[in-house]
Amino acid sequence: MGSALRILMLAAAVTLAGCASTNPRDPFEQFNRAMFRFNDAVDQAAVKPAAEVYSTLPTFVQIGVGNFFGNLEDGWTAVNNLLQGKLADGMSDVMRFTFNSTFGLGGLLDIGTEAGLPKHREDFGQTLGKWGVKPGPYIVLPILGSSTLRDVVAIPVDAQGDLWYNAYPVRVRNFGAAVRVIDQRAIVLDASNLVEEAALDRYQFVRDGYLQRRQSKVYDGDPPETSYEFDIGPSSMDESGVAEQSPVKGEQKATSAEPDPKPVVKVEQGAGSGADAGGVAKEVKQ
Amino acid sequence: MNVFKKLFAIAGFAVTGLAFAPAALAQEAPDALVKRISQEVLDAAKSDKDIQGGNQKKVLELVEAKILPHVDFQRMTALAAGRFWREASPEQQKQLTNEFRTLLVFTYSGAISQVRDQKLEFKPMRAEPSDTEVEVRSQVVQPRGGDPIQLNYRLEKVPTGWKIYDVNVLGAWLVETYKGNFAAEISKGGIDGLIKTLSDRNKKLAASAARTAKAS
């Protein structure tokens, strides 16, 4: 596993080096798009059909599978919570793992949640983020999908912490891993259909959604507030919701809103918009 | 001079007092508003068999009646378009807003028709009473277990009440997620190119919505 992973990373590094892109958060866009298409092909050919069949299984079976693998993850989540200094969450996860493994019949039943111990999901990538490591460029991995440089580096650590990774014999482990992947895919079947309809460019949509979500997870749902560039402020609209705005009014709104000390959401400007002379970057005061 | 100052102070107090009183009476707090609409939509979705069966037309009617009046689509579209909004003519802005609204309504109505036994939980809102922009945080608890789905809203205060102008699902804000798509389309074919792409997509979605309406 070690040498194969190293060769893969070397190959990736060589390929990535020659790519150019327009988005500063996605310098390897060409490579990522190619990976995205590849993953899509694998998904359409194998994973999605399997997930669709799996989702016809009785609900308690699907829930049981989800709970079983979820319980194994709770052990590593507890470690990560403790590493991040979240002692209460960490202890809660230790208790979850203990309860569910014993009274929950080896993890098949999730009695922890009902007992008031909510499920957390923490991996080593989030721990690194909490320690101040920035995500780095967006990277799409073969099969594994969306990731960032920081999270790629965390993979070997996560693999060691993954209890199922150490299961024997190898055939059981591989079968279990496949079942886990299919279960996860089944959970997001409806959401993925939604993304197909909602997105104009699926790759970008998935990338931008993923990066935001990852950031949100590092901060446990409470990321530093973000502001909008070029905010026009509340618009005047009629009852039917159709916009009603003359160009003159629009200008006035935009300029009069600037010195206004209303508390507005704040953000760090990621995409270099500094070059824009006409930009109205709103200031955040909270 | 002192007399004038006093008069100003009294006038100021009077005006503020007048301003606050009707406001307190007439307007619903933003989190109460979101709670109410969400509950109404959830209840309607769970109880209506047509909606559960996937009849798009009924879902759209529900969305138009209950949700759309409380959303500021123009600001949402402008934020997603970013610096290109100012370069668009008022006619283009209007078209773009309409197409974007239609796209959002079509695609996210699909989520509503999948509602089964989900429950909503609201987190305490962190805002001053004088704030004109707030964030309401909630989460969707699934019957299947697993993580609750984070669902947050950003609302703005307008004379008639509060309006939603951005939505966050699972940590990703809608406006931010669409910005990349919009910018790419605009750099390919200008604002008109974006409008055309959106309207083509909407025509396709309308056709499939009509099909599900006929089928049920």
The strand line-up of the biggest sheet of chain B is: 1-2-3-4-5
How many helices of chain A? The count is: 11
Q: What is the number of beta strands of chain A?
A: 2
Q: How far apart, in Å, are the first and last alpha carbons of chain B?
A: 77 Å
Main interface: chain pair and counts: A-B, 62 and 63 residues
Q: SS-based structural class of chain A?
A: mainly alpha
Rg from alpha-carbon coordinates of chain B: 21 Å
Helix content of chain A: 55-70%
Strands of chain B, count: 5
Strand content of the residues of chain B, in percent?
Answer: 15-25%
Quaternary form: heterodimer
Q: How large, in whole angstroms, is the Cα Rg of chain A?
A: 23 Å
Task: Write down the overall geometry of chain A.
Answer: globular
Please state roughly what percent of the residues of chain A sit in beta strands, choosing from under 5%, 5-15%, 15-25%, 25-35%, 35-45% or over 45%: under 5%
- Mean pLDDT across the residues of chain B is 83
List the uncertain runs of chain B.
Answer: 21-25
Write the layout of secondary structure elements.
The complex is a heterodimer of chains A (286) and B (216).
Chain A: H1 2-17, H2 29-54, H3 59-83, H4 87-102, H5 111-114, H6 124-130, E1 138-141, E2 145-148, H7 149-161, H8 170-187, H9 189-198, H10 202-218, H11 247-257
Antiparallel strand pairs in A: 1-2
Chain B: H1 2-26, H2 30-47, H3 49-52, H4 56-66, H5 73-81, H6 90-112, E1 119-122, E2 133-141, E3 149-158, E4 161-169, E5 172-173, H7 174-215
Antiparallel strand pairs in B: 1-2, 2-3, 3-4, 4-5
Q: Can you put this structure into words, describing what you see?
A:
- The complex is a heterodimer of chains A (286) and B (216).
- Chain A is built from eleven helices and two strands, in the order ααααααββααααα.
- With 286 residues, chain A is mainly alpha-helical.
- Chain A has helices at 2-17, 29-54, 59-83, 87-102, 111-114, 124-130, 149-161, 170-187, 189-198, 202-218, 247-257, and strands at 138-141, 145-148.
- Chain A is globular and about 55 Å long.
- By secondary structure, chain B is α+β, with helices and mostly antiparallel strands.
- The longest helix of chain B has 42 residues, at 174-215.
- In chain B, α2 packs antiparallel against α4 (56-66) and α6 packs across α7.
- Classes of the chains: A mainly alpha (286), B alpha+beta (216).
- At the A-B interface, α3, α9, α10 and α11 of A face α5, α6, β3, β5 and α7 of B.
